[in-house]
Write a structure and sequence with these properties.
Elements (H helix, E strand, L loop, with lengths): L1 E4 L2 E4 L6 H14 L2 E8 L2 E3 L6 H5 L7 E8 H32 L4 H25 L5 H17 L2 H12 L6
Parallel strand pairs: 1-5
Antiparallel strand pairs: 1-2, 3-4, 3-5
Helix pairs in contact: 3-4, 3-6, 4-5, 5-6
Length: about 180
């Protein structure tokens, strides 16, 4: 199989899986601070929906050519700034909605846990974006409080949870 990533070209002769080949493509792009944004396998465009276990386990010997296009991370991040701001605003709105149940009950911990998962996703992306852009972001100001928030969650300390959320986390989510 011939593989093309932007201007890089190489051949794969070994009986590898699609997962192994796609990991190699991704690692090569990442080494150049780029992210793969388009994939084409022979004449078929590949999307994230195609990346299921069955496809990833397929042998590459069935295919002739994989073409991958990547973009610089800073460019992708700049293009996503509006979405990042909207996501942060959604987190703030949903976080504020948790304050009353935290302070006055009843609180469904599943709602809090779902919100914490969204916060983790946001922080992971913003941290990655910060590294790619080589500039500070809101993640660095929010992250130290997350551990305290998780400890309060584990202890079921609703007052501490509400205080951390209201006074430390929500104000630090970027607009």
């Amino acid at each position: 199989m011939q593989i093309m990533l932007d201007q890089d070209h190489w051949e794969v002769d070994a009986p590898l899986t699609m997962e192994q080949v796609l990991m190699e493509v991704s690692e090569r792009a990442h080494a150049r601070a780029r992210m793969v944004t388009k994939l084409q396998l022979d004449q078929r465009r590949i999307t994230d929906r195609d990346l299921d276990p069955a496809f990833l386990a397929e042998s590459v010997v069935r295919f002739q050519q994989l073409t991958a296009v990547s973009q610089p991370m800073p460019e992708l991040i700049r293009a996503a700034e509006g979405s990042i701001r909207k996501y942060a605003e959604t987190l703030r709105t949903e976080g504020r909605a948790l304050l009353s149940p935290l302070r006055f009950g009843p609180l469904r911990f599943s709602s809090l846990d779902a919100w914490l998962g969204q916060l983790a996703d946001y922080l992971e992306f913003v941290d990655g974006a910060s590294a790619a852009m080589e500039a500070g972001t809101g993640a660095s100001t929010v992250a130290p409080w997350v551990q305290q928030l998780l400890e309060a969650r584990a202890a079921r300390d609703l007052v501490r949870l509400a205080d951390l959320l209201e006074y430390e986390i929500l104000p630090r989510l970027e607009i």
